[in-house]
Amino acid sequence: MANCDICTVVIVLIGYMGCGKSTVGKQLAKAMGIPFVDLDAHMEKVEKMSIASIFDTKGEIYFRKKEATLLLELLDAKDPMILALGGGTPCYGNVMQELLSNANVITIYLQCSVELLTQRLWKEKETRPLIAHIATQEALNEFIRKHLFERSPFYMMASIKLHTNSRSQKELVEQILFALL
Ligand code: S3P
């Protein structure tokens, strides 16, 4: 594995909502025999409420600060894991710089087309505070297109970038394992 020791490595999955960070992350963790941590699920556990309720009651600024703090705490522990971030985590404050300058971290961007993200997110938008209010699939498509354009410069800083559209979960896990060699 390039420039890292598997015993200390944290593989951080980044990408837009719906790109498959959690599903791929779980499979990858299983294949590598290390724990999987989902930052959103971790925050829900710490805050004892859903992400939607945190946005509702404490606001987005609180959420952004908390996700960055929890991420740094997890990295400080130096335990090997597959860590799926929230879609916005690497795009606020100096999170991406922190990740890139941490010798134990490998960042992987799961790249997905606007069309596929729209199809996936349309079915489950109610649980996602940033898109729950969007009324039509066309409006969601337009929102994702603009939002992804703003966030791409952060995502594209990842050390490994993988197109996910035409690949099964199994193929993606294999591609990641291959890229980590
Ligand atoms: C967000 C993505 C969500 C969650 C929150 C905000 C974002 O995570 O952190 O709703 O800003 O893109 P997922 O990418 O895991 O859905």
Bound molecule types: shikimate-3-phosphate
How can the largest sheet be summarized?
Answer: 5 strands, parallel
Instruction: Note the beta-strand portion.
Output: 5-15%
Please estimate the helix content.
40-55%
| Number of domains as seen in the coordinates | 1
Tell me the CATH topology: Rossmann fold
Q: Which oligomeric form is depicted?
A: single chain
* CATH class membership: Alpha Beta
Tell me the Rg in angstroms: 16 Å
What order do the helices and strands follow? EHEHHHEHEHHEH
Kindly report how far apart the N and C termini lie: 4 Å
Proper CATH architecture: 3-Layer(aba) Sandwich
Work out the number of β strands.
5
Instruction: Output the CATH homologous superfamily.
Output: P-loop containing nucleotide triphosphate hydrolases
What is the residue-mean pLDDT, rounded to a whole number?
Answer: 94
Uncertain stretches of 5 or more adjacent residues: none
Describe this protein's structure.
- With 181 residues, the protein is α/β, with parallel strands linked by helices.
- It has a single domain, classed as 3-Layer(aba) Sandwich (Rossmann fold).
- The chain is built from eight helices and five strands; from the N terminus they run E-H-E-H-H-H-E-H-E-H-H-E-H.
- The chain has a five-stranded parallel sheet, sandwiched between helices.
- Helix 1 packs across helix 8, helix 3 packs across helix 4 and helix 6 packs across helix 7.
- The radius of gyration is 16 Å and the shape is globular.
- The termini are close together.
- 31% of the residues are buried.
- The site of shikimate-3-phosphate has 10 residues, from loops.
